[in-house]
Amino acid sequence: IHNTKGEIELHDITAVSDESIRGIGSVDIICGGFPCQAFSIAGNRRGFEDTRGTLFFEIARAAKQIQPRFLFLENVKGLLNHDKGRTFTTILTTLDELGFDVEWQVLNSKDFGVPKNRERVFIIGHSRRYRSRFLFPLRRENSPAHLERLGNINPSKRGLNGEVYLTTGLAPT
């Protein structure tokens, strides 16, 4: 369906060497959703004591090797208050040490036309090596200003236009 030329599969990230990660080359963004069971109120909330919870550090390791312009991470809302906020502080500190300014916001899928009530925290890291504008907070009402703020909606409001709006101009995705 899609042009997969240039895509790679590394499978178990914990078994991939730093050299292999560097071999990926330059990328603009790393998108990651590390497993939520370790932080969810529906799970046992073992956090970084659960090996699934430590996969955030694999994303951080990849970011250190690749040095993307942006990180885009997603997890359950419970990540924010896990271990009285210490877990989220660790994540913020780690990203800061890697040279990222970070913003986050809890968004609910129901506010974006999805028939689910599902709250998630979205974390955006901006590399300090590049100038960029912050994207949050997103407003939750379905106003024209809100749709423009999302930055990837056609003027007809019926689909994506394939462009992401950056401070440096338009960039194809």
Description of the structure:
The protein contains 4 helices and 6 strands, in the order αβαβαββαββ. The strands form 2 sheets. Strands 1-2-4-3 form a 4-stranded mixed sheet, covered by helices on one side. It folds into 2 domains: 111 residues, Vaccinia Virus protein VP39 (Rossmann fold); 35 residues, no CATH class. By secondary structure, the protein is α+β, with helices and mostly antiparallel strands. The C terminus is likely disordered.
Which helices and strands occur, and which strands form pairs?
Blueprint: H1 18-22, E1 29-32, H2 55-66, E2 70-76, H3 86-97, E3 100-108, E4 119-127, H4 144-150, E5 163-166, E6 169-172
Parallel strand pairs: 1-2
Antiparallel strand pairs: 2-4, 3-4, 5-6
Per CATH, which architecture of the largest domain?
Answer: 3-Layer(aba) Sandwich
Shape: globular
As a whole number of angstroms, the C-alpha radius of gyration is: 17 Å
Largest sheet: 4 strands, mixed
End-to-end CA span: 16 Å
Tally of distinct domains: 2
Could you give the count of β-strands?
A: 6
Strand content is 15-25%
Number of helices: 4
CATH fold field value of the largest domain: Rossmann fold
CATH superfamily of the largest domain: Vaccinia Virus protein VP39
The stretches of 5 or more residues where confidence is low (pLDDT under 50) are: 142-154, 159-173
Cross-sheet strand order for the largest sheet: 1-2-4-3
What's the mean pLDDT score?
Answer: 75
